[in-house]
Amino acid sequence: MDPHLLLKTLRERHHFPQEEFQKFILLFQERFVPKNELLFQQDSVVKHLAFVLKGCLRQYHNTPEGTERTIFFAEEGWWCGEMDSFINRTPSTMSMQALEDCQLIYLNRENWEYATRTIPDYALYQIINRGHTVAKLKNMLSNMATETPDEKYRRILKESPHWINRIPQYHIASYLGVTPETLSRIRKRNRHL
Amino acid sequence: MDPHLLLKTLRERHHFPQEEFQKFILLFQERFVPKNELLFQQDSVVKHLAFVLKGCLRQYHNTPEGTERTIFFAEEGWWCGEMDSFINRTPSTMSMQALEDCQLIYLNRENWEYATRTIPDYALYQIINRGHTVAKLKNMLSNMATETPDEKYRRILKESPHWINRIPQYHIASYLGVTPETLSRIRKRNRHL
DNA sequence: GTAAAAAATTGATTTGAATCAAGAAAGTTC
DNA sequence: GAACTTTCTTGATTCAAATCAATTTTTTAC
């Protein structure tokens, strides 16, 4: 296993000593998830906290009306989990699906608790990182309500252009909150960009 | 100062020993914020992490197009801050405004850091609580994109009916992502509820 | 209590995305 | 590489919320 990506991620917004990392990495297990498989499922308790070494996944919610809503995409260097479900052992409101064959490493609940209790820098990392996640989600919430569909698409072009080639268009449409037909027309309108 | 609401909140999803709380509460300062005043402002670094003892506030974002988008309302027992800005000392993307005269207690950055470092149960509280916040924001994101305006309004009627009498309608409209005119018509349609 | 300002309601019209309905293109499987 | 499936595109139509505009109601300030 190549742990460098994990260490790099842990050090993004704070220091993380090498010695602590040695201890931390031992708590992980490796896992291969084939394309289309679900890493965890809505209405079930999430048992693992996974980190993406290779591949791409999406987190989504099935609405009562039978539609699907994609909340985010996780790529290399992302955590994918549902902490509320994982920590409190409550049913998740989200599912997570591999969009490609994925190489993950993950912690189970027991090892997560042990790591959080005994590695203060990991505890701090989680606080800082989650603060960042919350800020990003709030911005998304604001953008989703105020931007026009064209603006939303252009934001992706600007912030995550590689998604266009990596992720099926109908999933991007769901992420943007528009129908696939509309996204197709938006792309046509913005083809000059 | 009546610290009971804070202790109750800290104990919502995890234990929090009385002794640790005694130490914790000393780090807070009291503050009165009059109606309409801003607790912190977009594009500035957030200097405090506040807890609402009495009153009601809203967090919102000013878009480049000049519109305003309300993200959430904070009432008694809520934290109001912008952790990403507060922790990393980066400009906030959100503003926070008092909708009523508010009684708050708050931590400055220094005391927050001290508390997080020396009170393990507070560190753990933050991890657990933030996980919950993330889950709620994800659900909101899903709801905002899939629910009809009528469904959104009925969700508020169900989950936070007291908002109807406490919060001006045009702020609720902004929170739901519709115009005030539309919310007025929704209310008319749903008057029988 | 009155005047002024802010918020909410109601109506008429416009607009743009959803929906419905085929087809075309790309990807997968044997 | 042919057959099948999935994804994407394009067109016609519908519909619901935004917008524009005016009035009523409520709140605030003096």
If you had to describe this structure to a student in words, what would you say it looks like?
In chain A, the strands form 2 sheets. Chain A has a 4-stranded antiparallel β-sheet with strand order 1-8-3-6. The termini of chain A are far apart. The mean pLDDT of chain A is 94. The first copy, chain A, is of the alpha+beta class and 193 residues long. Chain A has 9 helices and 8 strands. Chain A is globular. In chain A, helix 4 packs across helix 5. The longest helix of chain A has 27 residues. Chain A is 47% helix and 21% strand. The first copy, chain A, folds into 2 domains: 133 residues, Jelly Rolls; 47 residues. The first copy, chain A, binds a DNA duplex (30 and 30 nucleotides) through helix 9.
